[in-house]
Amino acid sequence: MEELKRKLSLYGLTMIAVGSCIGSGIFISPADVVKNLPNPVFALLAWCIGGLIALTGSLSFSELGSMFPNSGGVYVYLKEAYGERTAFLYGWVTLLVINTGALAALSLAFANYLTFFVPISEPVKIFIAISTILVLTALNAKGVGLSQLFSNIFTGLKLAVLVAMIIAGVFIFGDVDRVFHFAGSFDPIQHPGSFLTALIGVLWSFGGWHHASYLAGEAILPQKNVPRAMILGTLIVTAVYILINFAYFSLLSIEQFASSERVAGDAMATIFKNGGKMVSLGIMISVFGTIGIYTMSAPRIYYAMAKDKIFFNSLAKVHKDYHTPYIAMWFQAIWAAILLVFWRTFSDLVTYTTFMDIIFMTLAGISLFVLRIKKSEVPRPVKVPWYPVVPGIFVIISAAFVINTVFEKPKQAIAGLILLVIGMLSYMYFRKNNKTNVKSEKAM
User: I want to staple 158 with a disulfide (CB 3.0 to 4.6 A). Which of 25, 52, 82, 286 is the partner?
Assistant: First the structure.
């Protein structure tokens, strides 16, 4: 049987970690943060806290990645700590909503930004969005070497766009003094929930650094390079996010910032006449690159599930020439296209169930404590520093978000529970069906 080939370098994995984080969020969500924290110092502090959370997560996952250098990442960690059922539910939620919903949203955003340059009708937007997913899936199915090249190029381009904006805003055209001498009356002590609410947009923008772990089965020296890539990627993204927000504050007043629907475009419009269009092009490049990475990374979870005989067996097939899980990749692409066709119907479901991702990330963080006891004999080439403080911070803050969602948005929790029940029934079906098939094969 064909197997995945190890071709991904440390640089390639780092670009995947960076590119998975930087999509459209950093160009838009900073305004939502400022609405909740109308003071540059506190808003920048929220981005620093977001970076701290991501860093504690990547440090924790670095030990897990060094222990289990296999394709699937979080799926593998959950399976080793809690068993197949929990791992299956993570893969189930990722396929049904989290990753395919993100693909649908990103591809639709890509089509929407095209309207800055060419008038496009709604049906054409859907066609362009679906075509984008299919074309990038076809590209990534041609081999992980080509996928690595694509990721390197487009992540490099999006970083170049952001660095150019940082230089323009902070060092050339912006008013840096405005950031340090803002006289505001906002007191975070009187609004304790503001930080938690503001962090929703922050963590959304940071999400994705762990995608490098999905591709561990195709990484060169995975025990070392996967952990390094997650940590380096998180540090790069944190530095860029803090500096780009600093640039926004240097170019916009607090009122302009908070009321902006396209903060990056409005900030650049203060410098260049066509600044909005320039930023729109940058966002299109950024989103296009992220779509490409998502079409490549998450299918490795479904591939791992199929290898474990708890999903469709065909998803474990590897292309004989390109050495990619091509059926798993096309399976994801088709489901994302279906979500796009019925996007208005499914948008609420996607919104209601995204918090499930945080639940499983919390469980993955706890798995480090579990595996220190349960799998103490497994070698750990990389160990999380300052254990148990670092993973403890990640778990506590992540759990706080889960608990807050249950109380503040019970509809999301109910929808998530329904999704999990369906997943449990599906797990029972696949487990029973595959056991029957194995018995039939032995009898023959």
Answer: 286
